[in-house]
Amino acid sequence: MREVVFLAEREGKRILAVVTLNMERVAGGAPIFFAQNEEERERIALYIAKTLDAMVHDLENGTYIIVRH
Amino acid sequence: MNEHIPTIVSGTLAGTVARLVMLRVDYRQYPGYPHGYVTHLSLGFIAAALGAVAVPAILKPDYTAVTFLALAATQFREVRSIERKTLEHLDEKELVKRGSDYIEGIARTFEARNYLVMLTSLLTSIAFQLGRGPAALLIAFLTIAFARSLMAGETIGDICEVVPARLWFKNTVLMVNGISMMTVGLKEMREKILREGLAVMIIPKDPNARAIIHDLGQRTAIAHTAAVIMGTKKDVDIPEFTPMARKDPDTGEVGLYIVPEEKDLEALILAVKRTPVLESARSKPLRTQAGRLAARRGRR
Fold first, then answer.
1. Chain B residues close to A60, C-beta within 8 Å
2. DSSP-assigned states of every residue in B90-121
3. Could you tell me which of B109, B215, B222, B284 has the fewest CB atoms within 10 Å of its CB?
4. Which residues, listed in sequence order, are joined to residue B168 by a DSSP beta bridge?
5. Is the ipTM of this complex over 0.90?
6. What is the C-alpha to C-alpha distance for residues A51 and A66, in angstroms, rounded to an integer?
7. Which residues pair with A67 in a beta bridge?
8. Whole-angstrom Cα distance, residue B227 to residue B229?
């Protein structure tokens, strides 16, 4: 798993931020933003993505990750 | 010396005309910057002159003079590297990348064209020396026709079927028929993609074609061509609209997704079909026994 992450990073892919509805399910190195509801999550994710020229991906467990490709 | 001038002129003329003719075939690979035209025409002229001078040099006889052809070869290799460097720099700022394979192909083409020019002028001046005007004209015409046919090259349309495909979302995963392209998190983006996006399937006609579109550089070139011709709504802050070509691992078919400026499926199919087959992607597994065996057994 670590190697996969390294490989992806070498290609320039990086998780820049995490936006979640469920604080208990995320942890780790990237900045984590807690959203109160889906609408807020969508909005925060959009703003961060636009700021960083990155893309939003839905992990479909209440968490969005924002990735630079 | 004076007696050789018509020979040199005829060769140089034929070579320059050859370069001009091949320049016109260029446009799909290279936007026609006026200065680019000037550069390549001048280089073509130099190549033509070099080729034409070879014959009088041998007649004189000044055999060592032919070694300058080797010098010319070095010079034209330099052309390739200059061309490559320029295109690579331009590609850095390109939203939909041309890709290094495509660039290498273009650079190599430019180099090769200069050699063809030299060949044209050499053969024409030989013909002029042996048979004067009519012979020179005939040989010039034949070599230019040959050079042109060599440069036309294959396109994706020759080796693959391109058919409309269904663009849909499996939850948040963007799909082209059965191929997953990427996940799109934002709902707003998903709706826009469904509304304005287009998708086609590129179906290889045989295992050789499958090997070609398996090549990542070739697929980048297809996406780039589609984006150049159709336009793209992609911008630096909207990576979701990046045109992409992904492969179905089971069948080798490639799905292409794009959000074009003009939503016209028919035009997209034409654009994909006219993408040149890259020299670096070209492979012929069917030429080998192992390849034929694999193709036959695989079908069972």
1. 171-172
2. HHHT-SS---HHHHHHHHHHHHHHHHHHHHHH
3. B284
4. B175
5. no
6. 11
7. A15, A55
8. 6
pLDDT band at B164 (very low <50, low <70, confident <90, very high): very high
B189 chain-A contacts, CB cut-off 8 A = 56
Joined together, the tokens standing for residue B270 give 């034409």
For chain B, the domains span 2-152, 157-286
Tell me the two tokens of residue B262: 């003009």
Residue B19 has pLDDT above 50, yes or no: yes
Tell me the three state secondary structure of residue B233.
Answer: coil
**pLDDT for A7:** 55
Q: From the CB of residue A6, how many other CB atoms can be counted at a distance below 10 Å?
A: 9
Contacts of B173 in chain A (CB under 8 A): none
Question: What distance, in Å, lies between the first and last C-alpha atoms of chain A?
Answer: 19
How far apart are the C-alpha atoms of B128 and B115, rounded to whole Å? 20
Determine the Cα–Cα distance for residues A54 and B190; give it in Å rounded to an integer.
16
Which residues of A, range 15-54, sit inside 8 Å of B by Cβ? 42, 45-46, 49-50, 53-54
Instruction: Find tokens 């304005």 and name the residue.
Output: B196
| pLDDT tens, position by position, A20-66 | 998 888 888 889 999 999 999 999 999 999 999 999 999 988 899 99
For helices B265-273 and B216-230, the axis angle rounded to 10 degrees is 140
Q: Which of B170, B172, B182 to substitute to test the interface with A, most A CBs within 10 Å?
A: B172
Q: What is the pLDDT of residues B167-214, one digit of tens each?
A: 999 989 999 999 999 999 999 999 999 999 999 999 999 888 999 999
Contact call for B188 and A53, based on CB within 8 A: no
Q: Which helix (H) or strand (E) holds B11?
A: helix B5-25
Residue B242: name the closest of B212, B219, B265 by CA: B219
Predicted confidence (pLDDT) per residue in B92-143, tens digit: 888 888 888 888 888 888 888 888 888 898 899 888 888 888 888 888 888 8
Residue A14, chain B, CB below 8 Å: the answer is no
- The pair of structure tokens assigned to B222 is 């297809």
Look at residue B63 and tell me whether its pLDDT is greater than 80.
no
- Cα–Cα distances (Å) from A32 to A12, A23, B46, B250, B288, in that order, read 20, 9, 63, 38, 54
